[in-house]
Amino acid sequence: MGSAQNRPAPVVHTRSGPVRGVVEDGLAVFKGVPYAAPPVGPLRWRPAQPHRGWSGTLDATAYGPSAPQLVREVDPMLGGHGFAPFDEDCLTLNVWTPGIDDARRPVLVWIHGGAFISGSGAMPNYSGETFARDGDLVVVNLNYRLGPLGLLHFASADGAEGPDAAEGGNVWLTDQLAALRWVQDNIAAFGGDPGNVTVAGQSAGALSTAALAGHAGDGRLFRRAILQSVPLAMPLATPAEGLARTAAYREIAGAKDLDELRALPWPRLVGATAGLLAATTEWGHWTAPFMPVLDGATAARQPVENLLDGPGAAIDVLIGWTAEESAFVFALGEAYASATREQVLRRARDSFGDGAAEAYAAYEAARPGGRPVDVLIGLTTDELFRKPTLAFAEARAVRGRPVWTYEFAFPTPAHDGRLGAPHCLDLPFVFDNFDAWSHAPFLAGMDVRTRDDLARSVHRAWISFVRTGDPNHPAMPRWERHDLHARATMRFGA
């Protein structure tokens, strides 16, 4: 069929029926394509089900609704992470391709983050156009169920738990798996290669990617994984913990049992998230109101284990963190900005016990002139992200498995330089699409030339990894695999 610009209204025949897209800047783009049945009515809290398909040609020129979620009115970091409209019928994906042909291009599937309570494949931030155009890739991103609609854990009347029980468990993961199976079944018709798929995500999206590796079938579902800011120190909840969290949420929502919960409209379900968020917040700890559950079925092991000795062991991995991840949570709130040394010491005891004072002194010495909150940011960044990421890389290296590690350390001058390189700051560099992030306050004040030079290097490294399994390209220094001899980590800075 040739390149996209030769087809003003491109049509692709999927297994569910034909879809008609649109040409945008020379790319064929298909938006709001259903990959599973609407999870509404009796399918609420049930694993994703196959879509029945459609007669005629589906109009795929506008994004589908985002998963229901709380929308933060004032966000001093991202400027917002929700994208209206929202609806429970949200299981759609979007595709960007340079051509509807048989070129069998590498495929990048992006899974958004947002602590499992926010985000959308419809957000301009996560548009696949830059990767499709610059890398000659087919790019897919998706919506999946979030918050109470995606992560509540239930037990059946006989006490069985998980997705095979009367009600759901980890239904967010069944959504993502359904999307990956859609890719296997359909992406060749969009010019992609189902045998050369990379799944990438950031934060909750990275944890999702590692969880999906438990179903990778030794690389048959996808070959490569990019894990950005994956909180490996946040373990999946046990079934008992999941049931307890669901019970606490149900009380907040004002439902005495599952039947009453099922009868509530989704805006009320989402609204109760704020109460659970408040109930689970602990000073100095980065917590999440909803966490996936280690249920023995959809998630049979902790996600990191999938990529060590589990079904995803053969997958190539690129993994890293930002230098001040936890600044995203702690740098700007007054409760932390005015924190005292004693408050942070008390928090440090949760991690270091009797060694808290020594640890505090070490973090303080590494940050001359730093405030107690800067010590908190350093130790929680190490605890949640840097330390477990390096431990994972070491474990991969011991097993002779390929892994590349990085630290994104380009500081932002926004908010008087208090942020350093916080969680999410790497995203516009990875996508190289700063125009789509113009609403994000944490990018303010950057030197544009330096910013753009670094973005090109990072963006090209991700493209190279998706295409070849190796992030190296001529415009950057040699990036060695992480091994037990050199323990190389690429540092992206100024």
Describe the structure.
- The structure is a single chain.
- This protein has 494 residues and is α/β, with parallel strands linked by helices.
- Helices cover 32% and strands 15% of the residues.
- It has 16 helices and 13 strands.
- It has helices at residues 129-135, 147-151, 171-186, 204-212, 239-253, 258-263, 266-271, 273-280, 303-306, 327-330, 334-337, 341-352, 356-365, 372-398, 427-431, 448-468, and strands spanning 11-14, 17-20, 22-24, 27-34, 58-59, 92-97, 105-111, 138-142, 192-202, 224-228, 316-322, 403-408, 489-492.
- The strands form two sheets. A ten-stranded mixed beta sheet has the order 3-4-6-8-7-9-10-11-12-13, with helices on both faces. The chain has a three-stranded mixed beta sheet with strand order 1-2-5, with no helix packed on it.
- Strand 7, helix 1 and strand 8 (138-142) form a beta-alpha-beta unit.
- The longest helix is centred in the C-terminal third of the chain and has 27 residues, at 372-398.
- The two termini are 44 Å apart.
Q: Radius of gyration, Cα only, in angstroms?
A: 22 Å
Strand and helix order: EEEEEEEHEHHEHEHHHHHEHHHHHEHHE
Number of beta-strand segments: 13
- The share of residues in extended strands comes to 5-15%
Keywords summarizing the entry:
single chain, 494 residues, alpha/beta, ten-stranded mixed sheet, three-stranded mixed sheet, 32% helix, globular
